[in-house]
Amino acid sequence: MNGIEKKSGFVTLVGRPNVGKSTLMNQMIGQKIAITSNKPQTTRNRIQTVYTDERGQIIFLDTPGIHKAKNKLGDYMVRTAMRTLKEVDVILWLVEPSDFIGPGDTHIGEELKKVTVPVILVINKIDMIKKEQILAVIDKYQTLYQFEEIIPVSAVKGDNMEKLITLIFCHLPYGPLFYDEDTVTDQPERQIVAEIIREKALHALNEEVPHGIAVTIESMKARKKEDIIDLEATIICEKDSHKGIIIGKKGSMLKKIGTHARFEIEKMLQSRVNLQLWVKVKKDWRDSEFLIKNFGYDKKESE
Protein backbone atom coordinates (compact mmCIF):
# COMPACT_ATOMS: atom_id res chain seq x y z
CA MET A 1 0.00 0.00 0.00
CA ASN A 2 1.93 2.99 -1.20
CA GLY A 3 1.82 5.60 -3.87
CA ILE A 4 0.08 8.94 -4.21
CA GLU A 5 -3.15 7.45 -5.63
CA LYS A 6 -4.20 6.49 -2.10
CA LYS A 7 -6.35 8.80 -0.02
CA SER A 8 -5.67 9.57 3.63
CA GLY A 9 -6.92 12.09 6.11
CA PHE A 10 -8.45 12.92 9.48
CA VAL A 11 -12.12 12.66 10.36
CA THR A 12 -13.78 13.73 13.58
CA LEU A 13 -17.12 12.76 15.06
CA VAL A 14 -19.08 15.50 16.82
CA GLY A 15 -22.47 15.51 18.46
CA ARG A 16 -24.24 15.84 21.75
CA PRO A 17 -23.30 13.33 24.47
CA ASN A 18 -24.89 9.87 24.08
CA VAL A 19 -25.76 10.02 20.36
CA GLY A 20 -23.55 6.99 19.67
CA LYS A 21 -20.23 8.45 18.51
CA SER A 22 -18.05 5.82 20.15
CA THR A 23 -20.33 2.98 19.00
CA LEU A 24 -20.18 4.30 15.43
CA MET A 25 -16.39 4.54 15.47
CA ASN A 26 -16.01 1.05 16.93
CA GLN A 27 -18.33 -0.27 14.21
CA MET A 28 -16.39 1.39 11.39
CA ILE A 29 -13.03 0.23 12.73
CA GLY A 30 -14.39 -3.28 13.21
CA GLN A 31 -13.30 -3.65 16.82
CA LYS A 32 -13.83 -1.99 20.16
CA ILE A 33 -11.51 0.88 21.02
CA ALA A 34 -13.73 3.60 22.48
CA ILE A 35 -15.81 2.76 25.53
CA THR A 36 -19.58 2.99 25.24
CA SER A 37 -22.28 3.75 27.76
CA ASN A 38 -25.63 5.54 27.91
CA LYS A 39 -24.22 7.78 30.66
CA PRO A 40 -22.99 11.31 29.83
CA GLN A 41 -19.24 12.05 29.77
CA THR A 42 -18.25 8.55 28.69
CA THR A 43 -15.53 9.75 26.29
CA ARG A 44 -13.14 12.17 27.98
CA ASN A 45 -10.01 12.08 25.84
CA ARG A 46 -9.62 12.45 22.10
CA ILE A 47 -9.26 8.86 20.93
CA GLN A 48 -7.49 8.23 17.65
CA THR A 49 -8.31 5.12 15.61
CA VAL A 50 -7.28 4.06 12.14
CA TYR A 51 -9.22 2.43 9.29
CA THR A 52 -7.19 1.17 6.31
CA ASP A 53 -8.29 -0.57 3.11
CA GLU A 54 -7.27 -0.61 -0.57
CA ARG A 55 -8.59 2.96 -1.02
CA GLY A 56 -6.34 4.45 1.64
CA GLN A 57 -6.60 5.41 5.30
CA ILE A 58 -9.07 7.21 7.55
CA ILE A 59 -7.84 8.42 10.95
CA PHE A 60 -10.83 8.92 13.24
CA LEU A 61 -10.71 11.33 16.17
CA ASP A 62 -13.48 10.46 18.62
CA THR A 63 -13.96 13.56 20.75
CA PRO A 64 -15.89 14.21 23.96
CA GLY A 65 -19.49 15.32 23.41
CA ILE A 66 -20.00 19.07 23.03
CA HIS A 67 -22.02 20.28 26.00
CA LYS A 68 -22.25 23.14 28.50
CA ALA A 69 -19.36 22.65 30.90
CA LYS A 70 -20.07 22.51 34.64
CA ASN A 71 -16.52 22.03 35.97
CA LYS A 72 -12.89 22.10 34.84
CA LEU A 73 -13.06 18.56 33.46
CA GLY A 74 -16.15 19.50 31.43
CA ASP A 75 -14.43 22.66 30.20
CA TYR A 76 -11.39 20.60 29.15
CA MET A 77 -13.62 18.14 27.29
CA VAL A 78 -15.46 20.84 25.32
CA ARG A 79 -12.22 22.68 24.39
CA THR A 80 -10.75 19.37 23.16
CA ALA A 81 -13.79 18.73 20.96
CA MET A 82 -13.88 22.25 19.51
CA ARG A 83 -10.15 22.38 18.75
CA THR A 84 -10.37 19.15 16.78
CA LEU A 85 -12.85 20.71 14.31
CA LYS A 86 -10.07 22.93 12.96
CA GLU A 87 -7.59 20.09 12.43
CA VAL A 88 -9.49 17.58 10.29
CA ASP A 89 -10.43 16.95 6.64
CA VAL A 90 -14.03 15.82 7.23
CA ILE A 91 -16.49 16.28 10.11
CA LEU A 92 -19.19 13.71 10.88
CA TRP A 93 -22.02 15.31 12.83
CA LEU A 94 -23.93 12.53 14.54
CA VAL A 95 -27.55 13.18 15.56
CA GLU A 96 -30.51 11.14 16.77
CA PRO A 97 -33.53 10.64 14.46
CA SER A 98 -35.75 13.41 15.84
CA ASP A 99 -37.19 16.38 13.98
CA PHE A 100 -36.93 18.39 17.20
CA ILE A 101 -33.65 20.30 17.30
CA GLY A 102 -32.77 21.26 20.86
CA PRO A 103 -30.32 23.91 22.13
CA GLY A 104 -27.44 21.38 22.17
CA ASP A 105 -27.63 20.68 18.43
CA THR A 106 -28.36 24.33 17.62
CA HIS A 107 -25.13 25.23 19.45
CA ILE A 108 -23.16 22.61 17.48
CA GLY A 109 -24.65 23.94 14.22
CA GLU A 110 -23.47 27.45 15.09
CA GLU A 111 -19.97 26.21 15.91
CA LEU A 112 -19.76 24.27 12.62
CA LYS A 113 -20.45 27.49 10.68
CA LYS A 114 -16.96 28.62 11.77
CA VAL A 115 -15.21 25.75 9.96
CA THR A 116 -14.49 25.33 6.24
CA VAL A 117 -14.21 21.53 5.90
CA PRO A 118 -17.00 19.26 4.55
CA VAL A 119 -19.61 18.23 7.14
CA ILE A 120 -21.52 14.96 6.72
CA LEU A 121 -24.73 14.65 8.74
CA VAL A 122 -25.03 11.12 10.13
CA ILE A 123 -28.51 10.30 11.44
CA ASN A 124 -27.94 7.45 13.88
CA LYS A 125 -30.36 4.97 15.48
CA ILE A 126 -32.55 4.64 12.36
CA ASP A 127 -33.53 1.19 13.62
CA MET A 128 -35.61 3.04 16.23
CA ILE A 129 -37.95 4.82 13.77
CA LYS A 130 -40.01 4.15 10.63
CA LYS A 131 -38.29 4.86 7.30
CA GLU A 132 -40.76 7.58 6.29
CA GLN A 133 -39.87 9.57 9.45
CA ILE A 134 -36.26 9.98 8.30
CA LEU A 135 -37.26 12.52 5.62
CA ALA A 136 -38.73 14.83 8.28
CA VAL A 137 -35.46 14.64 10.25
CA ILE A 138 -33.42 15.46 7.13
CA ASP A 139 -35.67 18.42 6.26
CA LYS A 140 -35.33 19.85 9.76
CA TYR A 141 -31.53 19.61 9.94
CA GLN A 142 -31.13 21.11 6.46
CA THR A 143 -32.61 24.34 7.87
CA LEU A 144 -29.74 24.45 10.37
CA TYR A 145 -26.70 23.80 8.15
CA GLN A 146 -25.69 23.19 4.53
CA PHE A 147 -24.33 19.64 4.62
CA GLU A 148 -22.01 18.10 2.05
CA GLU A 149 -23.76 14.74 2.52
CA ILE A 150 -26.55 13.27 4.68
CA ILE A 151 -26.68 9.57 5.54
CA PRO A 152 -28.93 7.57 7.91
CA VAL A 153 -27.20 4.71 9.81
CA SER A 154 -27.56 2.31 12.71
CA ALA A 155 -24.26 2.20 14.60
CA VAL A 156 -25.49 -0.66 16.79
CA LYS A 157 -26.62 -2.86 13.87
CA GLY A 158 -23.93 -1.72 11.41
CA ASP A 159 -26.45 -0.51 8.79
CA ASN A 160 -24.94 1.70 6.04
CA MET A 161 -21.39 1.56 7.45
CA GLU A 162 -19.81 0.78 4.08
CA LYS A 163 -21.75 3.62 2.41
CA LEU A 164 -20.56 6.01 5.10
CA ILE A 165 -16.92 4.96 4.70
CA THR A 166 -17.22 5.41 0.90
CA LEU A 167 -18.62 8.94 1.43
CA ILE A 168 -15.73 9.80 3.74
CA PHE A 169 -13.14 8.63 1.20
CA CYS A 170 -14.83 10.83 -1.45
CA HIS A 171 -13.92 13.92 0.59
CA LEU A 172 -10.40 12.96 1.73
CA PRO A 173 -7.28 14.35 0.01
CA TYR A 174 -4.82 12.14 -1.89
CA GLY A 175 -1.60 11.42 -0.05
CA PRO A 176 0.59 8.87 1.72
CA LEU A 177 -0.64 6.75 4.64
CA PHE A 178 0.00 8.13 8.12
CA TYR A 179 0.16 4.74 9.86
CA ASP A 180 1.18 1.16 9.06
CA GLU A 181 -1.62 -0.94 7.55
CA ASP A 182 -2.13 -2.99 10.72
CA THR A 183 -2.39 -0.01 13.13
CA VAL A 184 -5.83 0.30 14.72
CA THR A 185 -5.25 2.88 17.46
CA ASP A 186 -2.62 5.16 18.95
CA GLN A 187 -3.98 4.54 22.46
CA PRO A 188 -1.44 2.99 24.86
CA GLU A 189 -2.53 -0.43 26.18
CA ARG A 190 -2.67 0.80 29.77
CA GLN A 191 -5.05 3.61 28.80
CA ILE A 192 -7.38 1.23 26.97
CA VAL A 193 -7.36 -1.11 29.99
CA ALA A 194 -8.20 1.81 32.32
CA GLU A 195 -11.06 2.84 30.02
CA ILE A 196 -12.46 -0.71 29.92
CA ILE A 197 -12.58 -0.76 33.74
CA ARG A 198 -14.26 2.66 33.75
CA GLU A 199 -16.80 1.46 31.18
CA LYS A 200 -17.74 -1.56 33.32
CA ALA A 201 -18.15 0.74 36.33
CA LEU A 202 -20.37 3.08 34.28
CA HIS A 203 -22.57 0.15 33.28
CA ALA A 204 -22.84 -1.23 36.80
CA LEU A 205 -23.32 1.90 38.89
CA ASN A 206 -26.30 4.20 39.36
CA GLU A 207 -26.81 7.72 38.01
CA GLU A 208 -24.82 9.88 40.41
CA VAL A 209 -21.50 8.08 40.85
CA PRO A 210 -20.22 7.56 37.28
CA HIS A 211 -19.66 11.25 36.53
CA GLY A 212 -17.09 11.40 39.28
CA ILE A 213 -14.94 8.35 38.60
CA ALA A 214 -11.55 7.90 37.01
CA VAL A 215 -9.36 4.81 36.79
CA THR A 216 -5.60 4.62 37.20
CA ILE A 217 -3.46 1.59 36.41
CA GLU A 218 -1.02 1.09 39.27
CA SER A 219 0.91 -1.81 37.69
CA MET A 220 0.61 -4.12 34.69
CA LYS A 221 3.19 -6.91 34.47
CA ALA A 222 3.34 -10.17 32.55
CA ARG A 223 4.50 -13.12 34.70
CA LYS A 224 7.67 -14.77 33.51
CA LYS A 225 7.10 -18.15 31.81
CA GLU A 226 3.34 -17.88 32.47
CA ASP A 227 0.52 -16.76 30.20
CA ILE A 228 -0.90 -14.38 32.80
CA ILE A 229 -0.79 -10.63 33.37
CA ASP A 230 -0.97 -9.19 36.89
CA LEU A 231 -2.96 -5.98 36.78
CA GLU A 232 -3.56 -3.57 39.66
CA ALA A 233 -5.96 -0.66 39.19
CA THR A 234 -7.62 1.98 41.36
CA ILE A 235 -11.08 3.46 40.82
CA ILE A 236 -11.02 7.09 41.97
CA CYS A 237 -14.27 8.67 43.20
CA GLU A 238 -15.19 12.04 44.71
CA LYS A 239 -17.08 11.12 47.91
CA ASP A 240 -16.85 8.61 50.75
CA SER A 241 -20.49 7.66 50.09
CA HIS A 242 -19.56 6.86 46.47
CA LYS A 243 -16.75 4.59 47.65
CA GLY A 244 -19.28 2.50 49.57
CA ILE A 245 -21.54 2.23 46.51
CA ILE A 246 -18.65 1.20 44.23
CA ILE A 247 -17.47 -1.48 46.68
CA GLY A 248 -21.04 -2.69 47.38
CA LYS A 249 -22.34 -5.05 50.03
CA LYS A 250 -19.48 -7.39 51.03
CA GLY A 251 -17.56 -6.18 47.96
CA SER A 252 -20.23 -7.42 45.53
CA MET A 253 -20.26 -4.36 43.22
CA LEU A 254 -16.48 -4.17 42.95
CA LYS A 255 -16.39 -7.88 42.20
CA LYS A 256 -19.00 -7.44 39.45
CA ILE A 257 -17.05 -4.56 37.86
CA GLY A 258 -13.82 -6.58 38.10
CA THR A 259 -15.32 -9.73 36.58
CA HIS A 260 -16.79 -7.88 33.58
CA ALA A 261 -13.62 -5.85 33.05
CA ARG A 262 -11.32 -8.86 33.30
CA PHE A 263 -13.31 -10.75 30.64
CA GLU A 264 -12.91 -7.91 28.13
CA ILE A 265 -9.29 -7.13 29.02
CA GLU A 266 -8.37 -10.81 28.52
CA LYS A 267 -10.05 -10.74 25.12
CA MET A 268 -8.09 -7.62 24.12
CA LEU A 269 -4.70 -8.72 25.48
CA GLN A 270 -5.22 -12.37 24.46
CA SER A 271 -3.89 -13.48 27.82
CA ARG A 272 -5.24 -14.49 31.22
CA VAL A 273 -5.45 -11.56 33.61
CA ASN A 274 -5.22 -11.43 37.40
CA LEU A 275 -7.05 -8.16 38.15
CA GLN A 276 -6.88 -6.47 41.56
CA LEU A 277 -9.16 -3.45 42.05
CA TRP A 278 -9.06 -0.78 44.77
CA VAL A 279 -11.24 2.28 45.42
CA LYS A 280 -9.89 5.65 46.62
CA VAL A 281 -11.59 8.96 47.38
CA LYS A 282 -10.12 12.19 45.92
CA LYS A 283 -12.60 14.93 46.75
CA ASP A 284 -13.63 17.19 43.84
CA TRP A 285 -10.90 15.81 41.56
CA ARG A 286 -12.80 17.04 38.47
CA ASP A 287 -12.11 20.65 39.53
CA SER A 288 -8.41 20.06 40.25
CA GLU A 289 -6.15 20.70 37.26
CA PHE A 290 -3.38 18.65 38.90
CA LEU A 291 -5.63 15.61 39.40
CA ILE A 292 -7.26 15.91 35.96
CA LYS A 293 -3.77 15.75 34.42
CA ASN A 294 -2.74 13.00 36.84
CA PHE A 295 -5.65 10.84 35.66
CA GLY A 296 -4.57 11.08 32.05
CA TYR A 297 -6.49 14.06 30.69
CA ASP A 298 -3.74 16.12 29.09
CA LYS A 299 -4.48 19.85 29.15
CA LYS A 300 -2.35 20.41 26.02
CA GLU A 301 -4.97 18.39 24.09
CA SER A 302 -7.55 21.09 24.68
CA GLU A 303 -5.51 24.23 24.00
Distance between the termini: 35 Å
Number of domains: 2
Enumerate how many helices there are, as a single number: 9
Oligomerization: single chain
- What does the radius of gyration come to? 20 Å
CATH top-level class of the largest domain: Alpha Beta
What average pLDDT do the residues reach?
A: 80
The 3D shape can be described as globular
Structural class assignment: alpha/beta
CATH architecture of the largest domain: 3-Layer(aba) Sandwich
Q: Which sequence of SSEs, written as H and E, runs from N to C?
A: EHEEHEHEHEHHEEHHEH
Got a strand count? 9
Low-confidence stretches: 34-46, 299-303
Helix content: 25-40%
If you had to describe this structure to a student in words, what would you say it looks like?
- The protein has 303 residues and is an alpha/beta fold.
- The chain folds into two domains: 7-170, Rossmann fold; 189-302, K homology (KH) domain (GMP Synthetase, Chain A, domain 3, 2-Layer Sandwich), CATH 3.30.300.20.
- Helices cover 34% and strands 22% of the residues.
- The chain has nine helices and nine strands.
- It has a six-stranded mixed β-sheet, sandwiched between helices.
- Helix 4 (131-142) links the parallel strand 5 (119-123) and strand 6.
- Mean pLDDT is 80; it is low at 34-46 and 299-303.
